[in-house]
Design brief:
Layout (H helix, E strand, L loop, with lengths): L1 H27 L4 H7 L19 E11 L15 H22 L5 E8 L3 E9 L2 H10 L9 H12 L4 E10 L9 H11 L4 E8 L8 H4 L3 E5 L2 H22 L5 H12 L7
Parallel strand pairs: 1-2, 1-4, 4-5, 5-6
Antiparallel strand pairs: 2-3
Helix pairs in contact: 3-4, 3-8, 5-6
Length: 278
């Protein structure tokens, strides 16, 4: 009888410990959305700390992954416009891409790769990061569905990064257009840090905050990227042109035909005083 009582007490004690452990786990997981996403080991970018490896040889040229917010809030009207933000944004992106045509005429031997992704609660690659094709990009923009769902910025950045490492150029850029903060999946702050560290600065990141305070994405500046605000459609066109034509395209050519590391080495060598032959 005494043995049975002891066994029953042991069982009850074990059950109490199990319940307490479960409560501790649930409490630990009840943090912020970003903390939840960051603790999940589901993101390829967070899978390790080693340097990214391109899928093939890389050379001269620039590759740009354009990432467009297609979450539910993009259905709202843009400020000073009777059209929804997603229509205004798509037109602004199409106008931005038109500058690639004149660039290609001036620099026919400089490869420009452009890819297009949209995101809501999921990420959809529309055009892979491959040689610029204006008709394919225009068709993809027209084929985008009406916005709905959440805002998975981090996942979209990671998918764009993966596409850039298949494109075959040293110069890599991610351009994000969004009107809201991350609501699902891994946090963009974490992904930005991972991309910066594991690419060793080879992937430059630009954010355009459309109808939202740009300071919400201040973390982009911490990884040598840039974030700008655009309150309405006119401002969005201007900001996209400043980034795409004024910075990405001009920077890619100004960087020359060398690998980023080699370019840095050449700059250091040129700064050294000449040696006197003996």
């Amino acid at each position: 009888m005494i043995r049975r009582i002891r066994v029953e007490r042991a069982r009850r004690t074990a059950a109490t410990v199990a319940v307490a452990a479960a409560l501790l786990v649930a409490t630990a997981c009840a943090g912020s959305p970003d903390a939840d996403a960051d603790s999940a080991a589901a993101s390829p970018a967070g899978a390790g700390s080693d340097k990214y490896v391109p899928e093939g040889d890389e050379g001269l040229g620039a590759s740009i992954a354009i990432v467009i917010d297609n979450s539910g809030s993009m259905k709202e009207e843009a400020e000073g416009d009777d059209r929804p933000k997603y229509i205004v944004a798509r037109e602004a992106i199409e106008a931005m891409l038109a500058s690639t045509d004149s660039f290609a005429v001036r620099q026919p031997d400089f490869p420009i790769n452009v890819g297009l992704y949209w995101f809501s609660s999921k990420v959809t690659p529309m055009v892979p990061v491959t040689r610029y094709n204006r008709e394919a990009l225009r068709t993809a923009l027209d084929a985008m569905p009406e916005p709905e769902g959440g805002t998975a910025i981090g996942r979209a950045m990671d998918a764009a990064r993966e596409g850039l490492y298949r494109a075959g150029t040293f110069r890599k850029y991610i351009l994000v257009v969004t009107d809201g903060e991350n609501t699902t999946g891994v946090s963009p702050r974490r992904i930005a840090k991972e991309i910066d560290r594991r690419s060793e600065g080879a992937v430059r990141m630009y954010f355009v905050a459309f109808d939202i305070d740009a300071d919400r994405f201040a973390f982009v500046r911490d990884v040598r990227g840039e974030v700008v605000g655009a309150r309405n459609g006119d401002a969005l066109r201007t900001r996209l042109d400043e980034i795409y034509r004024g910075k990405i395209l001009s920077e890619a050519v100004d960087a020359g035909e060398t690998h980023p590391a080699a370019a840095g080495s050449a700059a250091r060598d040129s700064a050294k005083p000449p040696t006197t032959p003996r």
